[in-house]
Structures are given as C-alpha cells and as structure tokens.
Amino acid sequence: MATDAATTNRAAAAHLGEALRAVGYAEDGIIELLGEDGYSTGPEDLPTHARRLPETKLATTVRLLFLGLAVPTAEAERALGRRAVEALALTGFAEVDDEVVPRTRIVPVEDLLIAADSYSRGIEDPADYVAAFSPTSRLCDALTPRPQVDSALDVGTGSGAQALLAARHARRVVATDVNPRALEFTRLNAALNGLANIEVRSGSLFEPAGDEHFDLIVCNAPYVISPERRWTYRDAGGVGDEISERVVREAAARLNDGGFATVTASWVAPDAEEPDERVLAWVDATGCDAWIFVAWGADALDHAAEWNADLAGDAEAFAERLDDWNRYLDELGVRWISEGAVVLHRTGRSRPVVRIDEVDQEEIEAAGDQIERAFQARARLAELHRSTDLLDERLRVASKLRLEHVLEPQPDAPAVTSASVSLDDGTFSAVDADPDALEVVFELDPDLTLAEVLDEVADRLDLSGEDALRLQRDTLELCRELLELGALQLA
Ligand SMILES: C[S@@+](CC[C@H](N)C(=O)[O-])C[C@H]1O[C@@H](n2cnc3c(N)ncnc32)[C@H](O)[C@@H]1O
Question: What is the CATH number of the domain that holds 159?
Fold first, then answer.
C-alpha cells in the first residue's frame, strides 16, 4: 500500500513528466541542441555544451536535467512552470533554493524519460548507485523482441528502464531489484511516464517472481566477472560466470510457451580458441531455441583493464587492481572472457535450434522484429527434409539490405571478384555472398518460388549444367543464412 508521501511523490513525478513533454524534452530536441554526439555527454563536455545552448525553455531544461547543471530557480520556473520545479524537489530529483541543483539526470530513451543517478564519479560512487541507461542497457533493449504480451518480468531493473520499455507492449510488468533506491527510481520513472502497469518487487534475481511464468523476460543484471563486491549495479556476486548461468537457466524456467527472454551475460573459457563452450552448454540445457550474441571478448588482463579504466589515472592503484583481478581469474583457470546477450525462445519443439553470432554493440539498433522473424524461419527450416525443399518456398526481403560487389581491375576488363550482403538495420549482420547468388536475392519476389527466381536469373546470366547447379547451391546457402538472420522471410 503506497503511503501518502509516496502518492504525493508519484503525482509530482507524473506532473513533471507532462511539463517535460510540453517543452519538447525528447531525443530529437537534445540532438538538435547538442549535436549527434550529445548523447555520449560526460562531465568533461559540460563547459562546451553549456556555452552552446541558446536561451529557450527547452535549452534550460536540457541544461538542468540532461547536462545536470544548476539553473536559477526563476529561470527553471519560466521553462517548466512552478509546479514542475516543486515536483523536482518533492521527488528528490533536485534541491531547490535560489537555484535548482539537480541530483538526478533525466534522459529521454525512445519515447520514455528515464531518471537515474547523475554522472558516475568512478570509485567515489556509493554502493547503491543507480546507473543511467548504459550501452549494455541499450544492447538489452535492442535485442528484445516486442510482441504484444500479457506479462513481462524485468530482473535487476535499476532505473526501471527495461521494465518501462516492456510496459508499452505488456499488459503487466513485474520489476525486481535488491537495491531499494533502484526500486524507488523505478516507481518514480513509471509515474514520470504515466505508466500504471509496473509492479515493483524487492529481492534477489528471480526469487521475487516465485513460481510465476511470463511471456517476456528481460534481465540486464550485473554480469561482470570480478573478485569485487563494490557496486550493486556491477557486482552481483557468485564465482566466475555463475550469475550469468543462473540468469539463463532461471529465465528459461519461467518462460511461458511462445515466450522470449533477453538477458545480458558473460561467460568464461579455459581456452581462448573455444570461447563459447559454456554458454552453449547453458542454453542446450534450457530446451529453448536460442540466439547468442557475442559483443566483446578479451583475455584476463584486457578484461581487468577495461573494467577498471576509471583508475587508469592512478598508476599504482590501477596496477594493484589489475593484479587482484588477474589473480582471481588465474585461480579460476580463466583464459578468455566473453560478454554479450542470450535470447531464448520457448517453443516446445523437441529439437531446439541454437545459433551464435557476433554483434557490434555500438552499431546495433532495434532488432526485436528481426529476432522474431529469425526464430520463426529457423523453426520452419528445421522442418525441411532436404535443403533443396527451400526451392519450393516463396521468399521476401524483410530487412533493409545493403548489397555490395567488389570490382577489381583485370587485364581485359574489370570483374566482380567478391560480394556481400549486410543488414542495414537491427543487428547489422553481414554475410559473404557469391555475386551471382546475390543477383537472386536482388530479384526475390514473394509471388514466385525460389526455384522460379533462380531459373530467371540463370537464364539471364546464361548459366547451364554445372554452372546452374553451382548457382543453385550458392543461392540455397545464402538464402538459408539470410533467413536464419531474419533478413529474409518465408512468404
Ligand atoms: C547493470 S544494472 C541494469 C539496470 C537496468 N536493468 C538497465 O538495463 O539499465 C543491474 C541492476 O541489477 C541489480 N542487482 C544487482 N544484484 C542483484 C540481484 N542479486 N538481484 C536482483 N537485482 C540485482 C542492481 O541493483 C542494478 O540495478
């Protein structure tokens, strides 16, 4: 039962959200004011950005809540109204006196507003620091399928970002965390965005979910493999990759039939040549179809250096930390560490299909639809008796594709020596292709079977006998790969 104070705070957050939308506080407006790199703003960029901003209501709001700079109270009231400034004080997002001094940054993410603790101060951050929408939050969001569902679960909700993203397409969402400050941010963020279908529960990992099952599960819990227990948002405990293994196993166990789970994860290997054996074993044990995305891999030393980069300015402390981490990883026999995400799909079929791909975390965009198509296509492909059965199917292009030919000078005339096709959205995956098979993809027509399209292209290229068979083989291989990636769809 919410107390009076809690009800007042949420009403204040709801009013603040309306005021922010009224001044156009959104991704586009911020990029227009701060430039394309505006979203990667750090404390070092503040002097430049502050001087670039014009004198408008939106600019005042960006100064205050995006950059996290103090603003005279009269100016903040002119921009957002007196009630919204009072709301900043009531929610604890800012301290208000002659100036409004922000304690929180509010960052637009898609069409949502997400409040979290202000810029990290590295080692000085308190243990219960609540991180903003980070690159791994983005990865988790981008890899989450988003069909309309009845129920969703967000484990390790932090600011509540993944829960809020799910609340737009789930009837109800359960959001869990061990950090009470995170749960309070989640409640306030739900109110800030006018969302009333998020239930917040306190507890570790899946324990607050009890025996419930869900149609969608998201979890960007702390997966960093480290000997430390410094920050709740980064260090979840467990030995080595134990937390990731638990998250994969327990998410799968709570998925309804037809449901999807997207979890960020990390896995170790005793041999850098075989980095993914453990994650493959985890997903095999779930009985779900799975798509594993590898975003990053490093040996023990690079892993330690990357996660302790905030100490790089203090050579002695940095060296000491590297030794601690190295010793820990060495004792566990870890030679390689991978980070990425695992997407699970519970289908109830007896032979699950598992695939593993690399993904560029910087490049990825919303890939949920692509992932749904990919799982559907893989299930259909698994039912085909022979690979040539695909010739009887009708295929359509389902993603934005970039087709590339490499033209090289030759003694007589230049010739195409290689080709590739890459997705120009979603996971941005790329596939090497035979140049003639690429012609077939270019000509795909959902009214024709693949065999009919192949015949047309073979005629046009004047191919017969062995050459026509080679084109058929290369085309089947390419189309299968593009179907598995969700770039093509079976009509
Ligand atoms: C990396 S943050 C992710 C926050 C948010 N889900 C996002 O994607 O931006 C990890 C979150 O997991 C929470 N956490 C840490 N240990 C946990 C545990 N054992 N059970 C549940 N949540 C935990 C932390 O408090 C933190 O909020």
Answer: 3.40.50.150
Is residue 291 in a domain? yes
Distance between first and last Cα of the chain: 50
Could you tell me if 292 and 402 lie in one domain? no
- 456 and 317 in a common domain: no
Using one digit for the tens of pLDDT, what is the confidence trace for 405-462? 999 999 988 988 889 999 999 999 999 999 999 999 999 999 999 999 999 999 999 9
Among residues 308, 335, 364, the one where a domain terminates is: 364
Cα separation of 324 and 76, whole Å?
47
Q: Using the atom order of ligand 1, give the atom closest to the CA of residue 204.
A: 20
Q: Order of strands across the sheet with 430-433?
A: 401-408, 415-423, 430-433
176 and 315 both lie in a single domain: yes
Nearest CA to ligand 1 atom 11: 156
Instruction: Please state, for a pLDDT cut of 70, what percent of the chain lies above it.
Output: 97
For residue 157, give the ligand 1 atom closest to its CA.
6
pTM over 0.85: yes
Rounded Cα distance, 153 and 213, in Å: 9
Same domain, 341 and 386: no
Residue 403 · residue 421 · CB < 8 Å: yes
Q: 39 is in which domain, residue-wise?
A: 4-103
Co-location of 38 and 168 in the same domain? no
Ligand 1 atom at shortest distance from the alpha carbon of 136:
8
DSSP letter for each residue of 266-283: EEEES-TTSTTHHHHHHH
CA 204–ligand 1 middle distance (angstroms): 9
Give 408 Cα–ligand 1 centroid separation in angstroms. 51
Q: What is the pLDDT of residues 12-56, one digit of tens each?
A: 999 999 999 999 999 999 999 998 888 887 888 888 888 889 999
Q: What does the pLDDT look like over 139-175, one tens digit per residue?
A: 999 999 999 999 999 999 999 999 999 999 999 999 9
374 domain-assigned: no
* Residue 376 belongs to some domain of the structure: no
Ligand 1 pocket (Cβ < 6 Å) reads 131, 133-134, 137, 140, 155-159, 161-162, 176-179, 182, 204-205, 220-222, 232-233, 236
Q: Are 356 and 276 in contact (CB under 8 A)?
A: yes
Contact 94, 100 (CB under 8 A): yes
* Phi and psi torsions of 154, nearest 5°: -115, 115
Contact yes or no for 174/199 (Cβ under 8 A):
yes
Q: Which ligand 1 atom lies nearest to the CA of residue 140?
A: 8
Q: Distance, CA 17 to ligand 1 centroid (Å)?
A: 24
Residue 373 lies in a domain: no
